[in-house]
Write a structure and sequence with these properties.
By secondary structure, the chain is mainly alpha-helical. The chain is built from eight helices and no strands. Helix content is 77%, strand content 0%. Keywords: Membrane, Transmembrane, Transmembrane helix.
Length: 233
């Protein structure tokens, strides 16, 4: 368990530092800067979230103050950051879309998304007790829609011929493949987790390798696009 968490954290940190390198050597747009900041916030959040594992495996010698409290699990941390995470990513890809209908629709969709998510946290007692399925599946749906609309517009421009140096394409490809891969697993988890240990191991491996793929692709995007901007300057 510990090794799995650390491996994913290492790839997140590499992606975050690659983003800093891109900010220094590349020619980032406003939203690309925001994406780098988002990566650092995500990385710090993941490190903070390790407190539950440290507490559990140390038999509460460390972080003993969380024992017997709602903070014994880190659901509270990941629920709120997941909501922010999906909102940011949807707004990021919205910034790349020029079709007015889709820009308005995605913006309007965020209002009920956030409102219902907050209600779900507290009315259904989700916030401290489990990862919000509403936030995950609705967030993934809106994110996939925003990426597909971005691809639709991309196909109609000359940018389709220079994807190697299109930073947003790396982000979108990594995120799309990651969520298309893990969403079915999380649906099946409701039926198999408690009865099938092989499925639990398979799910864990796919999530780990999915994260490695995602952050590797993001890191590659930063480094390749940094070289492009450096050579053209």
């Amino acid at each position: 368990m510990w090794n799995s968490l650390l491996i994913v954290n290492v790839f997140e940190i590499i992606a975050a530092f690659s983003g800093l390198y891109y900010l220094k050597k590349g020619n980032p747009t406003k939203w690309e800067r925001y994406f780098v900041y988002y990566l650092w916030i995500l990385t710090i959040n993941e490190i903070i979230g390790l407190y539950t594992s440290i507490a559990y495996f140390s038999e509460y010698k460390y972080f003993s103050f969380v024992e017997g409290t709602p903070f014994i699990a880190n659901y509270w941390l990941y629920n709120i950051t997941s909501l922010i995470y999906f909102c940011f990513l949807i707004l990021y890809f919205r910034s790349l879309i020029t079709i007015d209908f889709w820009r308005k629709l995605l913006k309007l969709a965020l209002y009920p998304f956030v409102t219902i998510a907050i209600l779900d946290f507290f009315i259904n007692d989700t916030y401290f007790n489990e990862n919000s399925k509403f936030v995950f599946f609705t967030g993934v749906l809106l994110l996939v829609i925003s990426i597909l609309v971005y691809y639709y517009e991309l196909l109609k421009t000359d940018k389709i011929f220079s994807l190697k140096y299109n930073l947003s394409f790396y982000f979108s490809a990594g995120l799309l493949l990651f969520y298309v891969g893990i969403a079915p697993l999380l649906i099946l988890s409701n039926y198999y987790v408690s009865t099938n240990l092989e499925f639990v191991e398979l799910r864990k491996l796919i999530i780990i390798f999915g994260n490695i793929f995602l952050y590797t692709l993001i890191s590659m995007g930063f480094l390749i696009c940094s070289k492009k901007n450096k050579s053209s300057s």
